[in-house]
């Protein structure tokens, strides 16, 4: 039997699949979709991998090795099922610097070390900390990398050679324009033109990757041209595998720094790409819930991939948004697509080496110029500007381009910190002049820290002595310096005969809070040398909160009710602290005449007097009885009647509930219906008790419509007693409540 009736409705729902849960066994349709998507990604990945290896100063085949490992190893082990990993433009500048400093084989050792660090990141569950990097810094870093790639590869497009730094590339650009190499220029510009125009052409041909078309067109054109440098390979993919070598002992600190740099940048880029892939997959599937990325597992997969890629002589890998977006758009369903694309690249690198050697270097460079510039995204610039972080973005870009990646990111992080400090100091302090109905008001908004004390002091000193003042602290926190200054000013102003009240936003906690930042009430409590203790503390705190936050807002309502009451109904409910009559009936002041006693019994002088007053004096059109789940009075009836009932007033009171117990034992329909719905015994007895109390009211000749309610505390649902079925039903399925006469129907306060 279900624990609760709502569990029956939920039983038919398909459970949400955890990111770590095994994917459902793919059918033939899924396999066909993954196979088709893998071929599309393969066609995108080959030219990009070759171009990134060229731009990194690495052996050309290192790009294909990394693409194979990224597809197979990271595809199998990663936490993002639809993400495709491989060599990425975002790592090009870093790898080129490492190759220039240490040589290629030591760089592969750095790749291995970076992979091991990523494994540590994943095992330590550090993925969430990458979210602390401001987006403006991340986007600025990628844009800076893109600009650096474009500046360097533009020289190759023009038939020359890339320089070592952005400044050198800019300085040599005029000379390069004056000494163009005709064949290479035509090939490179053709590749750029095709990359730019192809996605904008109408028609189904856009399904063919633009990178493949660009390289294919440029290669075909180069056949008719002479003196065009082409890719030169020493052998096939298997012959290009090379093990790392150890650096000289004096280079180890720099090598370890390179490992950390590659690990951090590759991890951040992979996780950002995975988030984008999740969104694209959800949009493609019409909002259906796709498998989410497991960030820590993704770092483990990337770490394993980098370790293997470095050991085989490949470039560092990361999640690549270009390949991943192509994978999603092509209809991939599982990680099989990424794995298969790696298999196709491996076959291509072993069997079709001669095809690779036909590709002109200028074609790959033209491809990289466009890919690099695509990292400078107008949407990122607009977002940074909208959030007041454009300076961070621009500074990061310039730092990466003209210094190096680490220094550029460091500049961005420092500026982000300074911006946070500046925002912390930008507290808004304003004065609202007094009126006949309200005192002078000082409103403080924002963050009230020591940096804001000068502005606060200037405004407070303008308040004339002896005047009543209310200080509204609409702040997210205040530190000790700000509290101390405000407290000192409050004492001085009161000494002049003025009245001061300091208020806080609704919902502010008032319990003591140790630490650098706290609320006004918390600071006062700590400095008073005591905490709010004792039985009366919660109620007194509530009274203070009422006067501070609520009284002013409800005063007009109560002023209108001061002359008398005209409630729309009487509600007799249990005195249980969890039963809030006004909340479960969505009623306000003056709407309900309420009576609460133990077990919601129509018994005793108090309850009967309330019923008489409500019906005879107030003329309420409705009398409702509300029971609830988990009722202690009903449990007392089950446990103690008739022989073991405790002595005293409680025992006497509960004995008046014996008719309800007898009716339940006799098989009252309300109790049977509750049991069939999955309620426990005392809840079924509570339902019967409501029905019996309604019968009691009917016997008393109450001249009002009668209604029964049952509040299920576990679900916060209110059930209504159905007179015809003699059972409790959801409020929107009951035709009419119990009635001793037709009556006017449900009042507004009790309508669903």
Automatic annotation (TrEMBL):
- Composition-biased stretches, type Low complexity, lie in 734-752
| Main localisation | membrane
From the UniProt annotation, give the residues forming the signal peptide: none
Keywords in alphabetical order: Lyase, Membrane, Transmembrane, Transmembrane helix, Zinc
Localization: Membrane
The residues covered by the SLC26A/SulP transporter domain are: 31-395
The record ties this protein, via Gene3D superfamilies, to: Carbonic anhydrase (3.40.1050.10)
Record's catalysed reaction(s): hydrogencarbonate + H(+) = CO2 + H2O
Could you say which EC number(s) this protein's record lists?
Answer: 4.2.1.1
Q: Which residues cross the membrane?
A: 35-55, 62-82, 102-124, 136-158, 178-198, 210-231, 251-277, 343-370, 390-421
* Positions of the UniProt region annotated as Disordered: 1-28, 731-752
Membrane-protein topology:
Multi-pass membrane protein
Q: Does the keyword Membrane apply?
A: yes
InterPro entries this protein is in? Carbonic_anhydrase, Carbonic_anhydrase_CS, Carbonic_anhydrase_sf, SLC26A/SulP_dom, SLC26A/SulP_fam
Role according to the record: Catalyzes the reversible hydration of carbon dioxide to form bicarbonate.
Task: State the family named in the UniProt similarity comment for this chain.
Answer: Belongs to the beta-class carbonic anhydrase family.
The name this protein carries in UniProt is carbonic anhydrase
């Amino acid at each position: 039997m279900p624990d609760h009736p709502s569990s029956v409705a939920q039983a038919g729902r398909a459970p949400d699949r955890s990111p770590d849960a095994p994917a459902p066994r793919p059918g033939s349709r899924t396999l066909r979709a993954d196979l088709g998507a893998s071929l599309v990604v393969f066609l995108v990945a080959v030219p990009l991998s070759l171009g990134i290896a060229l731009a990194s100063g690495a052996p050309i085949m290192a790009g294909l090795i990394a693409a194979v490992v990224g597809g197979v190893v990271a595809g199998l082990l990663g936490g993002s099922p639809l993400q495709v990993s491989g060599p990425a433009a975002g790592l090009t500048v870093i790898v080129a610097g490492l190759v220039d400093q240490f040589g290629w084989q030591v760089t592969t050792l750095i790749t291995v070390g970076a992979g091991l660090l990523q494994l540590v990141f994943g095992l330590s569950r550090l993925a969430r900390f990458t979210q602390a990097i401001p987006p403006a810094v991340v986007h600025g870093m990628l844009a800076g990398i893109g600009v650096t790639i474009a500046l360097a590869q533009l020289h190759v497009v023009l038939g020359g050679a890339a320089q070592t730094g952005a400044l050198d590339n800019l300085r040599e650009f005029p000379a390069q324009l004056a000494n163009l190499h005709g064949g290479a220029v035509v090939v490179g510009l053709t590749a750029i033109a095709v990359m730019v125009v192809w996605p904008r052409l109408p028609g189904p041909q856009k399904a063919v990757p633009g990178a493949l078309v660009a390289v294919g067109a440029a290669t075909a054109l180069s056949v008719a041209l002479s003196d065009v440098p082409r890719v030169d390979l020493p052998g096939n993919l298997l012959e290009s595998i090379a093990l790392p070598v150890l650096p000289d002992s004096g280079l180890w600190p720099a090598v370890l720094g390179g490992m950390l740099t590659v690990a951090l940048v590759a991890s951040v880029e992979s996780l950002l790409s995975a988030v984008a892939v999740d969104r694209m997959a959800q949009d493609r599937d019409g909002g259906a819930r796709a498998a989410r990325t497991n960030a820590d597992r993704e770092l483990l997969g990337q770490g394993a991939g980098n370790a293997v890629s470095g050991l085989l002589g490949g470039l560092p890998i990361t999640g690549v948004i270009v390949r991943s977006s192509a994978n999603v758009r092509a209809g991939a369903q599982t990680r099989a697509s990424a794995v298969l694309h790696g298999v196709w690249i491996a076959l291509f690198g072993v069997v079709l080496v001669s095809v690779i050697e036909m590709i002109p270097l200028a074609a790959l460079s033209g491809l990289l110029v466009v890919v690099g510039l695509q990292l400078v995204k107008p949407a990122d610039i607009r977002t940074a500007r909208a959030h007041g972080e454009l300076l961070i973005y621009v500074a990061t870009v310039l730092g990466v381009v003209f210094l190096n990646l680490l220094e550029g990111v460091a500049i961005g992080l420092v500026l982000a910190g300074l911006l946070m400090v500046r925002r912390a100091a930008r507290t808004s302090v304003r004065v609202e002049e007094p009126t006949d109905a309200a005192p002078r008001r000082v409103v403080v908004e924002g963050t009230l820290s020591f940096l804001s004390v000068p502005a606060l002091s200037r405004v407070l000193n303008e308040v004339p002595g002896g005047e009543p003042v209310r200080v509204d602290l609409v702040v997210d926190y205040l530190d000790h310096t700000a509290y101390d200054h405000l407290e000192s000013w409050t004492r001085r102003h009161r000494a002049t005969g003025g009245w001061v009240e300091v208020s806080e936003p609704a919902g502010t906690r008032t319990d003591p809070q140790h630490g650098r930042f706290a609320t006004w009430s918390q600071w006062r409590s700590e400095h008073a040398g005591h905490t709010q203790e004792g039985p009366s503390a919660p109620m007194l705190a509530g009274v203070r909160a009422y006067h501070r936050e609520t009284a002013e807002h409800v005063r007009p309502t109560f002023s209108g009710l001061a002359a008398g009451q005209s409630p729309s109904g009487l509600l007799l409910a249990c005195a249980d602290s969890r039963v809030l009559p006004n909340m479960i009936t969505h009623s306000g002041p003056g709407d309900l005449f309420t009576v609460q006693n133990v077990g919601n019994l129509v018994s005793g002088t108090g309850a009967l007097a309330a019923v008489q007053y409500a019906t005879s004096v107030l003329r309420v059109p409705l009398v409702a009885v509300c029971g609830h789940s988990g009722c202690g009075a009903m449990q007392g009836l089950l446990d103690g009647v008739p022989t073991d009932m405790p002595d005293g007033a409680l025992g006497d009171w509960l004995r008046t509930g014996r008719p309800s117990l007898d009716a339940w034992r006799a098989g009252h329909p309300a109790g049977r219906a509750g049991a069939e719905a999955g309620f426990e015994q005392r809840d079924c007895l509570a339902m019967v008790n409501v029905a019996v109390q309604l019968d009691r009211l009917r016997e008393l000749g109450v001249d009002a419509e009668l209604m029964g309610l049952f509040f299920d505390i576990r679900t916060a649902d209110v059930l209504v007693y159905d007179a015809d079925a003699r059972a409790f039903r959801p409020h929107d399925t009951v035709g009419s409540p119990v009635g001793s006469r037709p009556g006017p129907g449900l009042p507004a306060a009790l309508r669903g």
